Amino acid sequence: MSMSAVRRLLIPILLCALQVSLCNAACAEVDSDTEAVVGAGFKVGCISCKMRGEVEGSASIDWFFRAKGEQDFLHIYNFEDKTPTILDDRFEDRLDWNGSKNTDDIQDASVYILNVTFNDSGTYRCLFNRVLTYPYYEYSTKASKLIHLTVVAKATRGTASIVSEVMMYVSIIGLQLWLLVEMIYCYRKISAAGEEALRESAAEYLAIASESKDNCAGVQVAE
């Protein structure tokens, strides 16, 4: 097999690997639930996807809380360099990181509240302090989201929660279908490249065999 045929075979494979990695890194922004049950645990969701997933980046996260009836937000939590810090005594030993794991490129900044109380009702704000790294410079940007949390004595299934869950599953299914289409496309490209490489190899073999036959015939005539 010639080097040109090998290159034609390898290029689609490399493109496939790149496309699959991009699919795996896909991010979907899903709204947080907004109703917690007193005494139970609750995940306050906050997802902010990068506009371009292939760009490397890092982020630190700050959470703020404004209790029901209050005017100002108070800084309650920080997550930076994979290190969580609780900054408000009301949430001491009750707030856990529930976002992106083992990476500084945070896109999911969710936190989990343990043993929810009625005093946890209010507005939560998560703030992404993101740095995007390009070949010759860095770009700083911020993104924030508000979550209005209501604490109830007994669980009820609200419309917003149902819609949010449905949208989450629709996003997951859509991403899976996209991945399947890309895999089929890559398979066809690889098959076509493989067939072309085989045809080139066969043509080269026939050319060599024909040349050898001509050489043999020339030797016999010379004799």
Task: Provide structural commentary.
It is a single chain. With 223 residues, this protein is α+β, with helices and mostly antiparallel strands. The chain is 39% helix and 28% strand. It has two helices and nine strands. The chain has helices at residues 3-24, 159-222; strands at residues 35-37, 42-44, 56-67, 74-80, 83-86, 95-97, 111-113, 122-133, 138-152. It has a six-stranded mixed β-sheet with strand order 1-9-8-3-4-5, with no helix packed on it. The protein has a three-stranded antiparallel β-sheet with strand order 2-7-6, with no helix packed on it. β3 (56-67) and β4 form a beta hairpin. α1 (3-24) packs antiparallel against α2. The chain starts with a helix and ends with a helix. The model is unreliable at 12-25 (pLDDT under 50).
Low-pLDDT residue intervals, each spanning 5 or more residues: 12-25
Q: Which strand order spans the largest sheet, edge to edge or round the barrel?
A: 1-9-8-3-4-5
Radius of gyration: 29 Å
Secondary-structure content class: alpha+beta
Can you count the helices?
2
Question: What is the H/E order?
Answer: HEEEEEEEEEH
Which word captures the global form?
elongated
The helix content, as a percent range, equals 25-40%
